[in-house]
Amino acid sequence: MPRFAFAGRCSTEDLQDPETSRNWQLTRARALIEPAGGEIVAEYFDAGHSRALPWKRRPQAAALLTALRDPHRGFDAVVIGEPQRTFYGNQFGNTFPLFTHFNVPLWVPEIGGPIDPDNEAHDLVMSVFGGMSKGERNRVKIRVRTAMGSQAKIEGRFLGGRPPYGYRLADAGPHPNPAKAADGKRLHRLEPDPQAAPIVVRIFTEYLRGTGLYAIAEGLTRDNIPCPSAHDRARNPHRDGRAWSKNTVRAILTNPRYTGHEVWNKQRKQEILLDIDDVTLGHRTQQTWNTPEQWIWSAKPVHEPLISKTTFTHAQARRHDRRQHHPAERSPRTTPRTYALRGLIRCSLCDRKMQGTFNHGHPHYRCRYPYEYAKSSPLDHPLTVYIREAVILPELDRWIAQAFAPGQLKTTLQTMQRSQRATTTALPGLEAARRTIADCDR
The Recombinase domain covers which part of the protein (predicted)? Predict the structure, then answer.
C-alpha cells in the first residue's frame, strides 16, 4: 500500500477557518489516492501563511522539504489537494526538482495522479496553476483597494482602525452588506471627544502663532493635560504616558482627518526582496508612507471638523517652510554595527527602550528621553543616560551561568513555565485579540 504525505496551506486571507480548509483539501487528496490503494500517513499543513511565501519560509512546507532528504522519511509519495493554495507564481518550478531529485512522486488532482517530470503538458499545467494563484491574489488586492478607495472618496465611510486623538467612535447604523448586517456588524463614524478635541484646536492655534513642536509639548505637559497614550491608557499600555512628545504633536499637525474629511491611502504595503541575490526567498512586506498627492480624500466632510481645511493647509505650509530653513532630522536607519542586547535594555527612570550607539569604538546603550518628551515634574531625567555594553555582559553571563547551572536548571525551567502560564492567565482577551488581528489582516 503506497504511503503518502499530505501537503496543504491556508492563510488569513481565506474567508474560512483553517480546519474547514484543511478538511476539504484533505478530502480531495484522499479521493485521488484511495482508488490506487494509497494511505495518508503524514500531514504538512500550513495555516496562517500567505501563498506568496516560498516553501522554505512556510514552517510545514519547509519541514516537508527537509523530510524529502531523509531516506527513512516514512512515506513514499506526496499528495496535494489544491495546487492553487500550495504553489504561487514560479514556486512549482523552484520546488519540484527536489521531488524529482529524491525520487518522491508528487500527486495532484488536476493531473489525475503523479506529475511526470518528462511530460511537458504536466509542467505547463502546473505553471498555469501557479500563474492563476498569483493572478487571483493580485486581483483580490486590486478589488479590495479599489473598493476601499471608492468607499472613502464617494461614501466617506470610516474604514476602521483607531480613531485619531480628538475623536471617538460613534455608531453609524447597520452594515450595508445584508449578510454582515445579519451577523450584527455595524458601521462607525468619528465624533469629537469632549476632552481631547479642544486640545487639538489648541495645538493648531499655537503652532500657527509660531510656537515650536517642543514648546507646545512642554506647555501641554506643564498644564497637566494627558497625552494621547495617557488619555486612552487601556489601548496604550506599551507607551509612555508621562508627557507629550514632539512626535505626538507632529502627528496631530499632519493628520488631515481633523478637517472633517475621511482620508485614506496615507500608507501602503510594499513588497521588498529579502535577498536580491536569491529571489527564490521571496519578499517581506513593509509599510511605506505615500506622498500627500496619493492620499484619497472624501468628496465632502463626513464628520464634524475640529479645524478648517484652510487652517490645516496653513499648518502644512509652515512645516514646509521650516523644513526649507531647518533641515529635517535624519530618519532612523539600519546600522551595520551589532548590539548583543539590542531592544532588551530599558531605562530604569522612564522604562523606555535604550538605543544602541557607538562611542569611542565601543557599543553603548543610551536614553535621550528629554530630547523627545517634554519635561515632566514627576520625572527627574538627565539629558542623556549612557551605559557601556561591556559593563552589562559579564554580569549577565554570570547570572545566566547560575540560573542554568546543572543543580539549578530544573528550578529555572519551572519558574519560566509558571511565568508563561501567569502571562497567559493575565490576558483573558488574548484569543479575542488574535481573532481581531486576523480580521484586520483579511
Answer: 164-325
In this structure, what C-alpha cell is assigned to residue 428?
483573558
d(CA 272, CA 213): 34
Global pTM exceeds 0.85: no
Q: 437: domain range?
A: 407-442
Asked whether the beta carbons of 133 and 51 are under 8 A apart, the reply is yes
103 and 251 within one domain: no
Asked whether the beta carbons of 106 and 96 are under 8 A apart, the reply is yes
pLDDT value at residue 360: 83
Q: Can you tell me whether residue 125 is helix, strand or coil? A: helix
Backbone angles phi, psi at 412, to 5 degrees: -65, -45
Grid coordinates in use for 350? Answer: 522612564
Residue 239 falls inside a structural domain? yes
> CA-CA distance, 197 to 326, in Å (whole number)?
30
Report d(CA 309, CA 215) in Å as an integer: 24
Residue in 56, 38, 36 with CA at minimum distance from that of residue 46: 56
Q: Distance from CA of residue 108 to its chain's centroid?
A: 33
Backbone angles phi, psi at 385, to 5 degrees: -115, 125
228 falls within a domain: yes
| Res 253 pLDDT > 90 | yes
